[in-house]
Amino acid sequence: MPFSAEALVREHTVYSCVMGSRAFGLATEESDTDLRGVFVAPTPLFWRLEMPPTHVEGPAAEQFSWEIERFCELALRANPNVLECLHTPLVTQITRTGRELLDLREAFLSRRAHMTFARYAAGQRTRLAADIGKHGAPRWKHAMHLLRLLVSCRDLLRSGNLIIDVGTERDYLLQVRRGEIPWPRVEARMNRLTEEVERAAATTSLPQEPDRARVEDFLVRTRRASSLE
What is the C-alpha separation between 190 and 11, in angstroms, rounded? Predict the structure, then answer.
């Protein structure tokens, strides 16, 4: 029988959360509510020629969900957006399988985060420089989130814990977003944070690689349970 991508999200979501500025503690009255989730496509769907989707946009506005295998693959690669989903304080829906997924948070963390977060930050710096060259000023919202990402990466490497709420950095970051701090000062802070990230990477206690075997065991058990439903 044909399946609906949106039905997979509605009927088979095991974990959903709020991300973006609301999760980071940076929300304003104009902020959207970014919804993210993980669904488990029923195992029999993988026995067909047409495979279930690896991700689905919708059905709600600003909603995006990953099929659980794709989500785990990205988390093992230390994809910043996916790792942050596992550490948001704003969980909106969770099942027993979802709780098992959250229990794996530490298994996904490794020194790979240094490379992926730093690569993402470098890309953002390039785009900010292009904006300045074209418009004479950066996109301040992007500058704010780049600073947030650098702080998050530095603290992850230092402590082994990924904390996404900006806490006491909120007022400063919102000043950046409003363009109230001159670009040279913002850029100097970015440079300082980048240096701190590199020093933290040299002494981090994070393992070299994630615990792939533990994650794979979870996936196999999840697929097997789904096949029996």
Answer: 43
Q: What tens digit of pLDDT does each residue of 122-135 get? A: 999 999 999 999 98
The residue range of the domain holding 215 is 5-108+209-228
pLDDT (tens digit per residue) in 161-174:
999 999 999 999 99
d(CA 15, CA 68): 10
Question: Would you say 78 and 110 are in contact if contact means Cβ atoms under 8 Å apart?
Answer: yes
Nearest C-alpha neighbor of 114 from the set 203, 198, 207: 198
Q: Give, in degrees to the nearest 5, the angle at Cα 107 between 21 and 16.
A: 40
Same domain, 74 and 149: no
Q: What is the CA radius of gyration of the chain?
A: 19
Q: What is the CATH number of the domain that holds 40?
A: 3.30.460
The structural domain count of the chain equals 2
Place of tokens 């690669």: 77
- Asked if residue 102 and residue 20 are part of one domain, the reply reads yes
H or E element, residue 127: helix 112-135
> CA–CA distance from 215 to each of 53, 73, 97, 212, 222 (Å)?
20, 9, 13, 5, 11
Co-location of 100 and 122 in the same domain: no
**What three-state secondary structure class fits 63?**
strand
> Cα separations (Å) of 117 from 9, 140, 152, 154?
28, 19, 9, 10
